[in-house]
Design a protein that fits this description.
The chain is α/β, with parallel strands linked by helices and 733 residues long. 22% of the residues lie in helices and 15% in strands. Strand 12 and strand 13 form a beta hairpin. Its EC number is 3.2.1.4.
Length: 733
């Protein structure tokens, strides 16, 4: 291609030289032959001037063509980079290269939501998805790290989308995977790259390993293979971030097949490249358990100390990218933020933990997540963030900022709570990275990303999230997210409700995963694995216990898997016991939102392992007009000062419920925030001492068809030891 440009520019120079010679020739006075009379001056001018103008114009045209065909050495911003870089991408040493061998940098944001039980990117209850993508591009970002969960891709329904807003009507009736298709295709049209991120296995929490929560290693790898095949002709999908934030028992370089994340990444990465050799394979670090590691503590996914001695070995080494996550004290106040050497100790840590990989030319570094609320240079978090941004700039590192969403509770986002306005201080700080100096040169011609027809998959019936049994956790938070609980009456501001869910959301038993050799349809995500089957139709069985710990934050309303030692084997390994060492961030299970700010796991000291509410909480309701409703509570998290609980109201009858009401008793707790229903103390004049609560649905949630359910919940402050809700009864008519 560069040789072609040189030939074109050479021809343009020759033609322009000829034309300029013609111009100069017409500009010289002509000698008169003897005997010829001199023409009048006006006739001479009339004859020569048009030729000069024409020749000069042609010369300028060729000169312009010459300039357009010559590669420019001027930097371009990140938004233009996606249009000028030639795909697919590869690596060489510490650099990411486009297909012409030109160094490029990725400047991305994380737009989360598909991995939650909404099964769609958040904010579409407020915005047109095409407008959202256009705004991302307009601010200078050229990539979106798009989280998903395996469970979400196997579901058949989405929620949290206002289908009456603009282009969102195109998403009506689509499955989560088809919604992801639409996001990706529109990103292609707008010149935005997509990095897929297996953020969770189920839609509730980030597991420590690549299996668990009812999913096997085979499930994980097969899902990646299906996605690699599905998007192999969609070139703006550039790669696979294999697993978000391995932590706890996850190790690196131990050769333990049950825990060595490096070996699992090799197995998955090579399986993906066998299907789609164009993708980048993005491998995050672990938290600990690395032989010879020098730093005692790391963020989840931030420990890549073992790469030098124990590298990931792929079938194509030029597709490997390492990806640490890095956060400040707003997520968890690690000891190094209060050391006397702070902030000068930060770069020392970054070099040891992960940047030596780029500095020594082993592989490129993509910081897959970093973010925080503060940018003020007088705050510890602001100092940390400014140091990291400067470090990224000086070392020419790629990144994806956490997050685009404003509803990341401990980091906030690029957007404000109205999902429209930009957090100016954050964007101004990042803007220096978006005016990059190592993007592909602008050759004036955008690459044509071919449009493809994504096959419409045929899915098994939709599933709803299984109900976990929580365990305590003494670790710092993992930055997943809990979708936007809607403030009810506790913070008293009205919020426009979401549209009603479109399809059946009753939990169902699921079929086992077919053997890998049966997965011949690239457009079909296989059904859930056998461990999630239930002998009781209509009830989703429990999953292994998540490590959850949450402090409810005041909600500000918006202004407008079983493991396998070896791939392919079905013999489960024992799941490791939860670690009691510090960890960073773990997401709450995700209640469907009405809007607003998500809860993220803060930093209280946990108590002993909480128990679920009394089994009698899962009861048959009172019946009116022969309507049967079932109430299934799920204690999401329980810590020293408070707790959060999700509630599922299921219509197991044969007639629809047009309105319903839930009552319960709670002696020593006060609700501080709730979602998807109105929670009111029966004694409104003395709500703090009230023991009885009445819950009524929002307008869109009144109707429950046979076999459908409604999900709601609340968080509360503990006022004593007798805080758990009891005697939950639902009645409908």
């Amino acid at each position: 291609m560069s040789r072609f440009f040189r030939h074109i520019s050479r021809v343009a120079r020759i033609l322009s030289t000829i034309l300029l010679t013609i111009i100069s020739h017409f500009g010289q006075p002509r000698r008169r032959k003897p005997g010829h009379s001199r023409l009048p001056k006006y006739q001479r001018t009339k004859f020569r001037l048009p030729w000069r103008i024409i020749a000069l114009g042609l010369a300028l045209v060729f000169l312009s063509l010459m300039e357009l065909t010559l590669p420019s050495h001027h930097p371009v911003d990140a938004a233009n980079a996606a249009r000028t870089m030639q795909l697919p991408l590869s690596t060489q040493g510490s650099q990411l290269l486009d297909s012409l061998g030109r160094p490029i940098l990725l400047r991305g944001v994380n737009w989360f939501g598909i991995e939650t039980d909404l099964h769609a990117p958040h904010g579409l209850w407020k915005r047109d998805y095409k407008d959202m993508l256009a705004q991302i591009k307009s601010l200078g970002y050229n990539m979106i790290r798009l989280p998903f969960s395996i469970q979400s891709l196997r579901a058949s329904e989405v929620s949290g989308i206002d289908f009456n807003i603009g282009s969102n009507r195109e998403l009506y009736g689509k499955s989560p995977l088809e919604v992801m298709d639409a996001i990706i295709k529109e990103a292609q049209q707008q010149g935005i790259l997509i990095l897929l991120d297996c953020h969770q296995l189920n839609d509730q929490r980030i597991p420590p390993l690549w299996y668990g929560d009812g999913f096997t290693e085979t499930d994980w790898i097969e899902t990646w293979k299906i996605l690699a095949n599905r998007y192999r002709n969609q070139p703006n999908v550039i790669g696979a971030d294999l697993k978000n934030e391995p932590h706890g028992p996850a190790s690196w370089g131990t050769n333990d097949l049950a825990t060595d994340w490096r070996l699992a990444a090799q197995r998955a990465g090579n399986a993906i490249l066998a299907v789609n050799p164009n993708w980048l394979i993005v491998v995050e670090g672990v938290e600990k358990n690395v032989p010879g590691q020098r730093l005692a503590t790391h963020w989840h996914g931030g420990n890549l100390e073992g790469v030098r001695e124990y590298p990931v070995r792929l079938s194509n080494a030029n597709k490997l990218v390492y990806s640490p996550h890095e956060y400040g004290p707003g997520v968890f106040n690690h000891s190094w933020f209060s050391e006397p050497s702070f902030p000068n100790n930060l770069e020392y840590r970054w070099e040891i933990a992960w940047n030596y990989i780029a500095r020594e030319g082993i592989a490129p570094i993509l910081i897959g997540e970093f973010g925080g609320k503060e940018v003020d240079p007088n705050s510890t978090e602001g100092v940390w963030k400014r140091r990291l941004v400067n470090y990224i700039n000086r070392n020419n590192l790629s990144f994806a900022y956490w997050s685009w969403n404003p509803n990341s509770g401990d980091t906030g986002g690029i957007l404000q709570d109205d999902w429209q306005s930009v957090e100016a201080p954050k964007q101004q700080l990042l803007q220096g990275l978006l005016i990059a100096n190592n993007f592909a040169p602008n050759v004036g011609v955008a690459p044509i990303i071919p449009s493809i027809s994504i096959p419409r998959p045929s899915f098994p019936p939709g599933i709803t999230k299984p109900m976990p049994t929580p365990l305590p956790n003494s670790q710092p938070r993992s930055i997943g997210q809990m979708p936007i609980p809607t403030p009810s009456r506790q913070p008293s501001r009205s919020v426009a409700p979401l549209p009603p869910p479109l399809s059946n959301s009753t939990p169902r038993s699921v079929a086992p995963l077919p053997p890998p050799n049966l997965l011949t349809n690239p457009g079909v995500i296989p059904p859930l694995p056998a461990p999630l089957q239930s002998s009781n139709p209509g009830v989703t069985p429990p999953l292994p216990a998540p490590n959850l710990r949450v402090t409810p934050t005041q909600v500000t309303p918006l202004p407008l898997p079983s493991p396998l030692a070896n791939p392919g084997l079905k013999e489960p390994l024992p799941l490791p016991s939860p670690s009691a060492t510090p960890r960073d961030r773990a997401p709450l299970p995700s209640p469907p939102p009405d809007t607003n700010q998500a809860l993220r796991e803060p930093r209280p000291t946990p108590e002993t392992s909480p128990n679920l509410p009394n089994p009698n909480l899962s009861t048959r309701s009172q019946t009116r007009n022969r309507v049967s409703l079932k109430v299934v509570p799920n204690l999401h998290s329980d810590w020293q000062e408070g707790f959060c609980i999700g509630i599922q109201v299921i219509n197991e009858g044969s007639t629809k419920v047009e309105d319903w009401e839930l009552t319960f008793q709670m002696n020593q707790a006060a609700i501080n925030n709730s979602w998807n229903a109105n929670f009111q103390p029966r004694n409104r004049e003395n709500s703090q001492s009230s023991k009885d609560y009445v819950v009524t649905p929002l307008d869109w949630g009144r109707l429950i068809e046979p076999g459908q359910s409604r999900h709601l919940g609340f968080c509360a402050n503990k006022l004593g030891s007798d805080y758990k809700p009891k005697q939950m009864l639902a009645s409908g008519h």
